[in-house]
């Protein structure tokens, strides 16, 4: 009877299969597109393909955020500022959050990542770097001041912002694992999370 | 004294006529890149299947590229003509900081442009040649041109 309340731990399904599949496909497609953009061959065909893939994944995720199961929905994970602040107060505590789904802080970071990815895909599609081989498929439909200058500038800026946001995302997961003793990676693989319901 | 003044009245206007303003220099080199672009605007859509292959048009564009590849445009990049000095240019100051690298990339572009004539005869060879020249455009734009 050392810890009688242990029995109240429950295994819940927090992430549906589509959310998990989209997440890990996005990891691959994002890093492939980013790496190819930065260090890839001058003929950027594969950067384009991975960029299109990111666009498709984000589109599906946004639709799923409107019609999917509870934890996948925007309405379930975009919390009011007050709730975010309340969550932030508990953040330094060395105990698992036991949160089901995206926590109030993580929810907004999801929206930030999706938003930046949409901007990145959109600016890529209309960019014309004036090299005749890496012209975005929709570059011809926007004014040339946008396609040859503004869109490539934003594309480059957002590539850095995305790296920072992804860096924060990974740092947060390491923080939860080592400081709070909560593994957030496993649920994103198996879909299941052990929730301690003592509180 | 009179002779000197007389001489100056002839020399000064002549000197003024020959010295190109930085703005004109920028226009001249932009004109060069516009000419390159006009040839690629013929060849690239053919290579990418967006336009039917037209051997005669391809040959003309490729020949023009070969001629343009022989033009030394380094005198059109004098100091004081970067986008930090002038409006209406996207030439980054790093061109003058890493001059050898810039010249190497120009040479790579010239090499790719001069190969175009031999490649423009068929679609099979045109594709890789356009890829190579476009790649040379990109490599230089990435480092030396403002977005």
Automatic annotation (TrEMBL), chain A:
Report domain Cytochrome b561 bacterial/Ni-hydrogenase positions. Answer: 14-191
Give its localization: Cell membrane
List the Gene3D superfamilies hit by this protein, alphabetically.
Transmembrane di-heme cytochromes, Chain C (1.20.950.20)
Any single Gene Ontology cellular-component annotation = plasma membrane
Name the Gene Ontology biological process terms.
respiratory electron transport chain
Asked if Lyase is a keyword of the record, the answer is no
- Which Pfam family, any one of them, does this sequence belong to? Ni_hydr_CYTB
Please report the record's description of how this protein sits within the membrane: Multi-pass membrane protein
Q: Which GO terms describe its molecular function?
A: electron transfer activity; heme binding
Keyword Cell wall biogenesis/degradation attributed:
no
Keywords for the protein's UniProt record, in alphabetical order: Cell membrane, Membrane, Transmembrane, Transmembrane helix
Residue ranges spanning the membrane: these are 21-37, 49-67, 105-126, 157-179
**Main location group:** membrane
PANTHER family per record: BLL0597 PROTEIN, NI/FE-HYDROGENASE 1 B-TYPE CYTOCHROME SUBUNIT
What name does UniProt use for this protein?
A: Cytochrome B561
Give the organism's phylogenetic lineage.
Bacteria, Pseudomonadati, Pseudomonadota, Alphaproteobacteria, Rhodobacterales
TrEMBL record, chain B:
Q: What molecular function does GO assign, one term?
A: heme binding
InterPro entries for this protein: Cyt_c/b562, Cyt_c_II, Cyt_c_prime, Cyt_c_prime_subgr
- What is the annotated signal peptide range for this record? 1-19
Question: Which GO annotations describe the biological process of this protein?
Answer: electron transport chain
Q: Which Gene3D superfamilies match?
A: Cytochrome c/b562
Q: How is it modified after translation?
A: Binds 1 heme group per subunit.
Its keywords, alphabetically, are: Electron transport, Heme, Iron, Metal-binding, Signal, Transport
**One protein family per Pfam:** Cytochrom_C_2
* GO cellular component: a single term: periplasmic space
Listed PROSITE patterns: CYTCII
- Per UniProt, where does heme c bind? 137, 140-141
By what name is this protein known? Cytochrome c, class II
């Amino acid at each position: 009877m050392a810890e009688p309340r242990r029995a109240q731990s429950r295994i819940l399904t927090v992430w549906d299969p589509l959310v998990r599949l989209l997440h890990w496909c996005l990891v691959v497609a994002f890093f492939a597109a980013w790496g190819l953009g930065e260090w890839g061959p001058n003929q950027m065909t594969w950067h384009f393909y991975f960029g299109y893939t990111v666009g498709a994944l984000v589109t599906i995720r946004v639709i799923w955020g409107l019609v999917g199961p509870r934890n996948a929905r925007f309405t379930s994970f975009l919390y009011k500022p007050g709730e975010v602040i309340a969550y932030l107060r508990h953040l330094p505590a060395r105990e698992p959050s036991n949160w089901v789904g995206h926590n109030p802080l993580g929810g907004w970071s999801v929206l930030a990542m999706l938003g930046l990815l949409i901007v990145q895909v959109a600016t890529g599609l209309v960019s014309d770097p004036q090299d005749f081989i890496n012209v975005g498929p929709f570059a011809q439909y926007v004014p040339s001041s946008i396609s040859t200058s503004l869109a490539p500038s934003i594309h480059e800026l957002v590539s850095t912002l995305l790296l920072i946001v992804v860096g924060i995302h990974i740092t947060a997961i390491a923080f939860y694992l080592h400081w709070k003793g909560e593994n957030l990676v496993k649920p994103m693989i198996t879909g299941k999370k052990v929730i301690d319901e003592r509180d | 004294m009179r002779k000197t003044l007389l001489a100056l009245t002839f020399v000064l206007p002549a000197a003024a006529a020959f010295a190109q303003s930085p703005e004109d220099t920028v226009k001249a080199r932009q004109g060069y890149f516009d000419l390159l672009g006009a040839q690629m605007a013929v060849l690239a859509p053919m290579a990418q299947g967006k336009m039917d292959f037209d051997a005669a048009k391809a040959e003309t564009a490729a020949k023009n590229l070969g001629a343009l590849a022989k033009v030394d445009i380094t005198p059109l990049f004098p100091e004081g003509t970067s986008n930090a000095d002038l409006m209406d240019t996207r030439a980054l100051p790093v061109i003058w900081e890493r001059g050898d690298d810039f010249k190497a990339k120009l040479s790579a572009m010239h090499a790719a442009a001069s190969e175009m004539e031999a490649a423009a005869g068929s679609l099979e060879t045109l594709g890789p040649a356009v890829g190579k020249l476009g790649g040379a455009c990109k490599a230089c734009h990435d480092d030396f041109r403002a977005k």
